[in-house]
Amino acid sequence: MSKSDKKLLIVDDDHIIRDSLSEFLSIEGYECGKADSFGNAIKELELGEYHIVITDVNMPESNGFELLKLIRKRYPHIVTIIITGYGTIESAVEAIKMGAYDYLTKPIVDDEIRMVIARACEQQSLLEENRSLKKQLKQKQGIDNIVGQDPKMLRIYDLIESVSESKATVLITGKSGTGKSMFARAIHQRSDRCDKPFVEVSCGALPETLLDSELFGHAKGAFTGAVNDKEGKFLAANGGTIFLDEINSATPAFQLKLLRVLQERQFEPVGSNVTKSIDVRVVLATNQDLQNEVTEGRFREDLFYRINVVTLEIPLLKERMSDVLLLADRFLRMQCNNHGKKMSGFAEDVILAMESYLWPGNVRELENAIERGVVLGKTHLIELHNMPNALVDHAQANPARDTEMVVECPRSLKNLLEVPEKRFIEEALRKNNWNRQLTAEQLEINRTTLYKKIKRYNLESEHSDVN
What we know:
By secondary structure, this protein is of the alpha/beta class. Helix content is 49%, strand content 12%. α18 packs across α19 (436-443).
């Protein structure tokens, strides 16, 4: 960003100082605004997009330190420089502690203000870049980044909206690859803790001997190799959210400690008698049936009921096949951007294969398949021979039966989604010997809805008399 892109606000009740600084900095190439009081400075900040504020300490109504406080609270991307005619070491230290970038005394020397403003511009650019990255990260990790229109997904969205603002513990269940971490982040981003830390810990990836230390920290000398005090993940997440993935793999000792943390929000680091208090939202995930783990004696019953307050059950991808093409399109755009490719879609045989393949690795497998297709692709379409072997083998073992329809079908999203829906209804009818009642129960829709879809897709055939 050039000098002309940086807008400076000069706040001083002395019009000579105010005008001379403005004239000098304008000659230097900066755009300058002026204010003669605290109140007028606030009005200027509300009206214009300022990057740097140069403010005097002593002004009518309120002083420069009060303006600094307000800027830090409302406009954290603005860099503030304090100037005064009565400078002391104490006031300079106070200004820096409160967040001022620099502190100058009058009379202002041209070379000094020139150098300070140049450095302040660099600092402001870094703040702006950081703000932009945080915004992008929030968009990437928020609920808007989760793709799905299946009724099961719509219920999950509603549940996330309902639970995000509370402090309730959330348990996310689902097989590997269904995106449990993304849902945990979405809960955090929709909460009033979104500006605080989100700390993720995979309990299954840590050895039993390190899990306690990693989460609760340890005191110096607690064990061999503990040469310093360590904070731990719970303290690192203080004020925010901690996400404990694969909680089903936690040891009995750790389960007992976690139960206390959830009940009292207190714990002691390993090797320490000092009790730590925390304010943390806890979200947990499991890829196993915890109720069964309780029955088998591998998971504490009291902990299970303590964490099973609100449960999000993430469906397998094969249970929401109508979302496959939506997800594929999102991953295609994302991976093209990541790898600098320009691809517009998928070849017809790839679409048919993706619609009928059951995706045992769930959403993660689909994303990896799309990335492979983008990396290896040589044309504007992802082609079948560039996809993983499992998908290629599936396509070859299950040749398309609806070739005429596919060729003639306009490729709108609605029509694309109708293709797998018809195939799944037909398959379900065939497996249930064309019994509509059993098929409706299996598909979790009512019989009237099933009958309408049978008519829409012309599936009545010789079996239409079967109930």
